[in-house]
Design a protein that fits this description.
single chain; 403 residues; alpha/beta; TIM Barrel; 14 helices; 9 strands; binds (3S,4R)-3-hydroxy-2-oxopiperidin-4-yl beta-D-xylopyranoside
Length: 403
């Protein structure tokens, strides 16, 4: 593989000296011939096309590892906390919040001119241990709205968007509306989504309010069915004038997946409804790929290229985030069910575990470059392209469906 590069750690690290982020332990990246910082970065390529690009981050690494901080700073104009804004992280006790880790990420993002997404306000997972014995049908509404007032309120005006509700659809729930059997559904009924979105709107009127889900990317029958359920859910919300601005397609893909017309049509339909689409958590699980590292990397890169090229051809797709930036810390190597059978670590992200850009990096950059209307445009920071401008749907007014 010859597309390796020397990460200009010193320059980027100097830029991230904010509040001691660059201080601690550090092993220098191995020198290589390919520089992917500055104008060659994902960030510059995205900004030249008015796009947001970034990754999920972990505060301990931002604070503790210069290569990590430098890579995140150089490559991203938007971040999302991988775990630090989940209930479990924010609420050590029912009556106590701990915002330190979340604040640290916000400070890093602000220090590097990066947007920040909030993830997430309402989910059936990552609930604190006290939740089960404390929250019930009588107090769930108060807990949910107070949580959203407190958390979204704290960061009001500072976030690009919030994943207000995460993963509410489960096609195996046996319900006609496809809603997942979660504590929120059990305690509050299907109205819990509306409660959450309204509370988020009240707490932070400027953030783009997002519904986020997974398993809706391919044309496999179960994914097609789930995607249809998500679309119906979004239509119901829009019809009820629930303040929703965007849908997050998580995009935890597996090597061999094929981007298909189903997702493209879904994105277009959301566009006609006036909604943006974000690729919120992309990675490529290569658990089933055999062969050399180079062959595995090629399989991963191919899917990055095909998937993102398809998505970015749609004008309402405005942000692409990967779930982590380096293979060193991918969740796919910590969760038992994602481990490779041969015990080798997975390589699902744009940078390998030594912070060298993988073929997936270049595939991602090529896909950013393919953004319609700007093909062949020189990569430069363009003052006229405002990646943060609100999306204006072309033509059609939002279509409201009756319930
Ligand atoms: C994952 C994190 O990456 C892990 O570190 C954590 O242990 C579990 O959650 N969909 C989501 C994310 O919306 O919040 C999940 O993140 C991955 C799947």
């Amino acid at each position: 593989m010859n597309r390796r590069r020397f990460l200009q750690v010193s320059a980027a690290a100097a830029a991230c000296s904010l509040q001691g982020f660059a201080e601690k332990k550090h092993k220098a990246a191995a020198p290589s011939l390919t520089d992917v910082t500055g104008e060659r970065s994902l960030r510059a390529h995205a900004e030249a096309r008015g796009l947001l690009v970034g990754c999920a981050v972990v505060p301990e690494h931002l604070d503790g590892e210069t290569d990590y901080a430098a890579t995140v700073a150089a490559q991203s104009n938007i971040l999302v906390p991988e775990n630090a804004m989940k209930w479990q992280a924010l609420r050590p006790a029912a009556d106590r919040f701990d915002f330190r880790a979340a604040d640290e990420i916000l400070m890093f993002a602000e220090g590097h001119g990066q947007k920040l997404r909030g993830h997430n306000l309402c989910w059936h997972e990552a609930l604190p241990s006290w939740f089960e014995s404390t929250v019930n049908a009588d107090n769930a509404r108060r807990f949910l709205t107070e949580h959203i007032q407190t958390v979204a309120g704290r960061y009001a005006g500072k976030l690009h968007s919030w994943d207000v509700v995460n993963e509410a659809i489960d096609i195996h729930s046996g319900r006609a509306d496809g809603l997942r059997k979660s504590p929120w559904l059990e305690f509050l009924g299907p109205g819990y989504l509306e409660i959450a979105f309204q509370a988020a709107k009240q707490a932070d009127p400027n953030a783009l309010l997002t519904y986020n889900d997974y398993g809706i990317e391919t044309d496999a029958p179960d994914q097609t069915e789930k995607r249809a359920q998500v679309l119906m859910l979004v239509r119901r919300l829009v019809a009820r004038r629930v303040p929703i601005d965007a849908v997050g397609v998580q995009s935890h893909l597996a090597a061999g997946d094929k981007p298909g017309a189903g997702l493209r049509d879904f994105v277009r339909e959301l566009g006609r409804m006036g909604l943006q689409v974000f690729v919120t958590e992309m990675d490529v699980n290569e658990q089933k790929l055999e062969g050399s590292v180079a062959e595995r990397d090629a399989g991963v890169a191919e899917l990055y290229k095909d998937y993102l090229t398809m998505m970015l051809a749609e004008p309402n797709v405005t942000a692409v985030l990967t779930w982590g930036i380096t293979d060193r810390y991918t969740w796919l190597n910590s969760d038992q069910k994602h481990l490779r059978p041969d015990g080798k670590p997975q390589r699902p992200l744009p940078f390998d575990s030594d912070y060298q850009p993988a073929p997936a990096y270049f595939a991602m950059r090529d896909a950013l470059d393919s953004r319609a209307g700007k093909e062949g445009a020189p990569v430069k920071s363009s003052p006229d392209a405002d990646p943060y401008a609100p999306f204006t749907p072309k033509g059609a007014a939002p279509k409201l469906m009756r319930q």
